[in-house]
Write a structure and sequence with these properties.
Length: about 230
Amino acid sequence: MTATLTPEERLGHADEELLDLKNGFVEAIAELHEHPEIDNSFAERLTAIGDRLSALREGLRLEDDLDKAQVIEFHEALWEINRLLTARDTSYDLDVIDHLLVAIERVRHVIRDALDEHVVGLPGDAGLVIQELKGWLPNTSNEIIAGLVGVNRKTLTRWGKVSRPAPRQLQLVAHLVAILRHNWTEEGVIAWFERPRRGLGGRKPIALLGDPGAEDSLLSEARAGRSQDG
């Protein structure tokens, strides 16, 4: 099933499943809290959470759907959930419930962030990636976009007309713009690349785009920039 779905479809399904799981658990616990005499299956409810999260994990293709930082966050949250599910007794425990809800929401935040940052065509089709970039930056010239990608304008135009693997720097720029666009204006997104960033040791992002070793730092800095004004 996963092979026939796009990353966006898989992430969307995972987000819906997590929301349904969380809401259903909250409703069941609220009912159980008010009427403890009707249900003594707290342990069964926790087991069901574990089963649904395992199915959700199997429905994703982590190498395609999440980046490295998101994969780490995803696994850390699932590990915490597994710890809560295995290191407990079978009694109704409000502390376990609270920590489980926090951990489930942490998983959902990873999925929501991945959805927000999704780039069509990444990494397989340079033309689709460029279309996404131009859609997000409609008032930005091809010269500026090409400069970020590290090529000349003619090369960028040629890439936009063919289906070919997206080069690493094009993928990175598209990913960064996908992150920043939710909280910055178009002008703010472009300016972000030219401003020295404290999280990058005072260096400008544009100076690091060609360095494969700086990719994780750039993505972390862009995510931190969501809280700033564009």
